Queue: 4 jobs
Job 1
Amino acid sequence: MFPNLLSHLNHLRDDKRIRFIEQEVNGKYFTIVSYMIADTDLWKLPFANECRGITFENDTGKCVCAPFEKFFNLNENDWTQESIVKNWGLPSHVFDKRDGSMVTPVLVNDNIVFKTKKSFYSDVAKLANETAKKMEEVLTVSYELLSEGLTPIFEFTHPEAEIVLNYGNE
């Protein structure tokens, strides 16, 4: 089961490791749910692993943005031990490591608005929205996927928002 309604996460409201962040965007109100402190016991709670920026429209309580759930490194815990991970050693894809910021779009009044894990208004979210205005293909694909009830997820890298690596001027 997936927490497709905000009420599915009510049991986490008093947990200090989880934050429910309400924000207004262009006249609509949303609640973003994100973990703030990660520990092994947190992941034992129902739906806690989904609290990585999952976003709900306040009027309906429906999920409008479902980023990747919390994921773990190989051997980080009991269920990610190399001995039990299927097909370990048989990669299907290999990509360059790019440390950026996860951004996800939300459809607000028929417009695409990007957000980070915790905010529509962080410096990175603002920069992602400015950058996306120049990338029609990203906006078109985002709109199409959101219209189908899917959440596109992007790793945003920008010279003005370096996380670890210097990406140059583009």
Note: The mean pLDDT is 89.
Job 2
Amino acid sequence: VFVTGFSDGGSGSFSQAFRSPDNFAGYFPMMGDPLIPTTDQIQHCYTNLKGAHIYALTGGADPIYPGKEMEKLFKAANKQGADIEYTLYPDVGHTWADNDVEFPKILDYTEQWMRDPLPGELDWTTDLPELGRRAWLSIDETGDLPKALNKAKKLQPEGGGSFRPDLGIKAELNAPPNAPAEVGQLEKGLVADRMGIKEGDVVVGMDGKEVASFTDIRMLLIKKKPGEKISLTVDRNGKRLTFEDKLDKPAKSHPGRVQGKQKPGHVTLEVYDVKKLSIWVAPELLDKKGRLTIKINRDKVFDAVVT
């Protein structure tokens, strides 16, 4: 099973690789950004991509995710242990590349790549316990640990990424792509709701600029920064009303990291700011007698036959 997508789907493919690098056989992000939006609240650690099969496409003339900038990110990730193969098309914008070349190549990879359900080595960072499992390890609780207990290498989260604020506005379910930006649904507590926008309003302006569709809104939002002021003008029953508020900032998080190895009968781990973890045992994790020894920070914490 493979994950692929174009544009936001490309960034989403990278997001899946950061969240679950062992759950799929491979990832094919097309014209996306590996530093998925900070509003996804996924820790940007390139080390999470170790062991994941990734083949990416990017365009040198892409105004949203410029190919040369994406190439820098790919190379930075690979220096930290990722294995991102990619093709940069110098003259391609935010559109499909050469389908006649790329689609057969991708199909070839689907024949070659398989997921590894029991990797021998893991390097796993997360700040969301509900997404904290990778193969035979899960990080269940993170928090400050004394310096003496932080034996794993210090966390290396990546800054930046394509910050994309969520206004909390959803279109009508079956609205055409370029239809007027009518508010079909509001998410409570987000920017538009706090402003006083209502369902049924039609957004006609943002920061003093006219907008004709949600596409126009998205293109203007790309240039916005966390915490920045924003104004929306709506048509409400023939009246134009303007509202202002500030964009939300990404929530602060406390990630933890585990670096570990396994061979039949033995698991060795080192942690950084991880207070609780679990080992998920498969028969292949045990020695011939069904025994498992676990060491954390070089201390033996478990040594028994697993029934």
Note: The chain has a mean pLDDT of 91.
Job 3
Amino acid sequence: TSWRATAKGGGRPSASFAAKADAYAWAARTEAGILSGKQGSIPDKTFGELLERYAREVSPTKKGELWEQSRIALLQRDPIAQLKLKDLDSKAVALWRDRRLTTIKGASVRREWTLLGSACSVAVGEWHWLRENPFGKDAGAKRPKGSPHRTEVITEADLAALDFHSLGNPIYERVLRCARFAIETAMRAGEVMYLGEHPEQVDVTTRVAHLPDTKNGQARDVPLSAEAIRLRGDSGGWGLDSVSLDAHWRALRDKAGLQRLHFHDTRHTAITRLAKKLQILDLARMAGITDLKILMVYYNESAADIALKL
């Protein structure tokens, strides 16, 4: 009588033994050796060094390159960046999470969690710097709960206040024109800026703007209203870039006493308004939304306005 043991992985090697205990011991040693050879030993590096490599090699391949790199630079100040990779576990992640929650909201921590999890995933699968992802779903530490979805809609009174405080300031006037264009088209800020840099992507005759690369990775043709064409102007440019648009929007908003507003609220406003004119599938296509559940996040009509339709 003999016992045959088969190890998992590496071509499933096997061997026979007279004793059952010897068979189990051989299988355990062989599987450990296969795993060690496949993943390698964890290098004597810090988590900060892992993030530096990710920012240098991986972030430039993404649309959110600047955000990832700036966020990684900020996270280098946290104690988790000084941890050796061998000490990076779910407990360390939980401590990092709790520290961040003292200074930023849960939604922001969730975005950083996704970034750090992505970096660790690359370190596991490609670099073999980690054996498992401590930010992974089954690692142990729990993501913080996300913040409620925004429901802010920019009203005509808000636009009037912004218009009043932009008078006489050419930069503020351009910023408000961008915001009104976004409300007419449901475009994101980056998409509005893209059309300013590439006026040739707008066909004035058919009133269609072409966006070759959007947030979801797909091209999109956006129908334009007559008002959107008017706001765009003859030159098609805004005289702004994404950074200056954000900075000057905040300044104008604060000057008008409307600190509650974000520029992205123009998208909520646009979809809420356009829902009165377009069928749901037309609206989703215009806004570049493939999941109708997401469309409901942006549709923020008040119950009082809905009641007027009854």
Note: Residues 142 and 186 are 34 Å apart (CA to CA).
Job 4
Amino acid sequence: PSGKGKRLLQARDITRLHQLEIVRRDFVANVSHEIRTPLTVVHGYVETMQESDTFQGPWKRIIEQMRTQTLRMQRIVEDLLLLSRLETRSSNEGQGIVGVYPMLRGVLEGARQLSGDRGHEILLDADERLRLVGNSHELESAFTNLVYNAVRYTPEQGRIEMRWWLSGSGPCFSVTDSGIGISPEHLPRLTERFYRVDVGRSRESGGTGLGLAIVKHVLTRHDARLVVESEPGKGSIFTCRFPHSRVAS
């Protein structure tokens, strides 16, 4: 609306922006693909050095740091390649009926292994009969990222609850933690690539900065959205809300 009884129509040619986005996406995909092979070779040599009796004493700490960083780089490359596939593949590719409950059992086991001796209480409350129409690999990646983030950012002995249920608006998956929480000013930018609330803590925990970007892409491909509720010092709730049309009969 523009003035009384008037309308203003604005048009903008976005061809150039669209072309630049394609170039950026292709560049990231190609570079990530090319980096993966030499990085694998470097990591293999570092592991060999770590197991050798030659590199002990002061070298031991240096080799361990090299191994940790090459592993981190490998995870970043894999996440970038996954994002590239999500951006270029048809949203209908690989779709079928997904048994979410068995998937979440696997995610739960992985989360407990990631927690290790930190003593987290990790619980699952799920509707075993509620199934979803979607891509099982993509959904597992999204759910795993949310749960593993909760494990990484929740202090020792903290509580993490996974929940899968049918609400009035459709199927929902939520992860509730008693972690450090997130300030309101960070919430709108959480799903940006490489955006970090706390850079130091993120690197210590082994995160790539791409997990929530992957979650956002997966949910968009499943007509779903991510809702985040958080308060510093009181934990966070990440909820994936799917439409009723995604319920598998």
Note: Strands lie at 96-98, 121-126, 131-134, 159-166, 171-177, 225-230, 236-241, 247-248.
